[in-house]
Amino acid sequence: MNTANEVPREEAAVTQAPSATEAAVETALARLDLDTKTRLLAGQDRWSLPPVPEIGLKSLVMSDGPIGVRGVRWSADDPSIALPSPTALAATWDPGLAHRAGVLLAQEARRKGVHVLLAPTVNLHRSPLGGRHFECYSEDPYLTGVIGSGYVNGVQSGGVGTTVKHFVANDAETDRFTVDNLISARALRELYLAPFEAIVENAHPWGIMTAYNSVNGTTMSEHHYLVNEVLRGEWGFDGFNVSDWTAARSTVDAINGGLDVAMPGPRTVYGEALARAVRDGKADEATVDEAVRNVLRLAVRVGALETAEPAVTEPPETVDGVGLAREIARRSFVLVKNDNHALPLKPGGTVALIGAAARDARVLGGGSATVFLDRIVSPLDGLTEALPEGTLSYAIGADPNTEPATADKGFTLRAVCRGADGTVLATSGIPNGQIHWSFADLPEGVSFDNLHSVELTGTFTPRHTGVHTLGIKGTGAFQLAVNGVTYYDGVQAHDEGDPFEGFFSSPVPRAQVELTAGEPVDVSLTHVVALDEDSLREDVTITLAHQEPQRDPDELIAEAVEAARAADTAVVVVATTDRVESEGFDRTDLALPGRQDDLVRAVAAANPNAVVVVNSGSPVEMPWRDEVAAVLLSWFPGQEGGAAFADVLVGTHEPGGRLPTTWGSLTDAPVSQVVPENGELPYSEDVFIGYRAWDKAGRAPAYPFGHGLGYTDWDYKSVEVCGNVAKVRVLNSGDRPGREIVQVYLAPAERASDRPARWLAGFAVVEAGPGETVEAVVDIPRRAFEVWDEATDSWAFVKGAYNIHVGRSIADRRITVAVHV
Ligand code: BGC
Q: Cβ neighbours of residue 30 under 8 Å, at least 6 residues apart?
């Protein structure tokens, strides 16, 4: 059995000897005139920079991550592997696994001609309401930095760049383009900047993405102090800095504030505007040159500059993406409760699987993190495959979708582009009822000059008989028809002004149509494209939404109760939806949508072996948690989630995850504010977020940071602290092999009001067979003892007496050792 400390010492991806890279950069730079240089700092379209063939520079292509590689087209034609959500990756507490995820993503990127992956997202879980919680790793800066470093090293070892994002403090979505987050220097350093700093030090990222928001009065795409002085000056970051999409708003302030590249294009504040600013004496050409150097250095590293050797000449061996997606999923599932060994399922027993998400699994988060998949294994698919025939039943129980969602199941759609005279310019397959096209995504032969309308057209074959609702997201003129009958012909007006409204807004129900299960109907949604002359955007973003016939919710629950009563075990899958949890907005509560809480309670009353699986990217309230036998958190588990779910339920593998974030109710959560007042959001809790805040408030959450059960038990035998290493001996006292995440927390012996009671200082992963004792070796970095001293503007090592706690979570501390430093 492997007893080694599995947390690898992260080696940064091998880069070319700096002098050769720098020489190639200088040679290329010297051959560029001002106009070409400023052109190179602006997107030529939504995803790429212009090529400069004269110097052998190819177009640099970027694409969203973080759990797959979407590629430059919003199309189903070139699907991507979809790994579990970043919260899931962090729940593995395994930088080695994050590294392997990165290698796979580099492989996907190379296959799609992508040089830079727009990931990872390392903002913190400050408030559980944060809409992009699922896309970040943790509430803890150390864990975030370790997982992020593994990921970046993995991607870059495949010769593909990363942009660690969003620098910094994009921790919520409300008014995300304009909010001014007011944060003390200490909280910035100890919490929000810390993961970026760790990743710069341990993984040398080739890129960073500056956030939409402001920090202490300055928008991040112009933040000279944080970008030029801290990131580049203090930390020595030598990569390129790209704006978040549409975040760059001024030419001179952005270039002086250290922003290298303004995305997307072609209309940006750089390019011609920047050349003009230099000619008018408002910006220095030397500053432009610095930005161009950063872009050229990136080009060398990813192999886009012909005159220089790339950082990676031999990409790593091919990774089996499907296998890895399944492995990460089961290693990420967190079993927070397992009374009477309800899991794994007893062989030969019958199972009632319940929940809309058991059949239509939510495997990834919404917004820019979306990728288009080849396949989705749902929990129903996974269990059907794993259990003997005749032992599994299924009931919907409750539908979490309280409004129409992107048309998907049963729809086969294509987009038809037409000119003003009705001529068909092109036709293109689309993944579902949503399109999100910039001009680079437009099908061959189509441009914004000749495009007049787009029609989403095809068939819909209903799964259920009854009244189906169709809705529309987006602004402008629309016509909706089913089987040739027009249900809507009108104009939807602008709402909040979010440029991605066609993505994030609520769909407007426009048709109620009586349909019969299995009988296909023709569907058509036509949109007249009118570009917004005043904005820098040129895109078409619209969604056809659909909602199944609404059955009586009590009847659905009654059906599920009947199924639960008839089975040995009832497994209920509950979920959030993309109307509740997504990029683009924050959550307003942590409740499960629809009647899912009622469903769980009713099933728990009918079957003592009720197992609840929570399919969400971030915390939800579980008011019924004392009434059920087991609770398994499965995050957004990626495309193989259902297969991993079956592995864990039948027990071929144990669920391996530990909570990367505290789970508790919203009323108890000490920090939850995400709504700015007068444009400002004060981080008044200072350094107390996550478990640091729960500890300070003296409140016990539902499930603490670090918590998670496997299928075996562990005894903590001894701890020996030598220098900055803690050696922890643990015994697998159960009856099956297992993996344990040994956690080390540091606590000042005397509580100081300005310091958290304790914090994560290190961890290690060990494996052991039944009855076996193994040693975990945990490094405790010097930084764990330091605080940011605002008076001297530097880190201060705090001497004195500390307790080192080792254990299974921040609350389950098994052994304490006193040290004096
Ligand atoms: C998101 C970024 C993303 C970019 C490009 C933005 O709205 O905040 O995370 O990389 O869009 O899709």
A: none
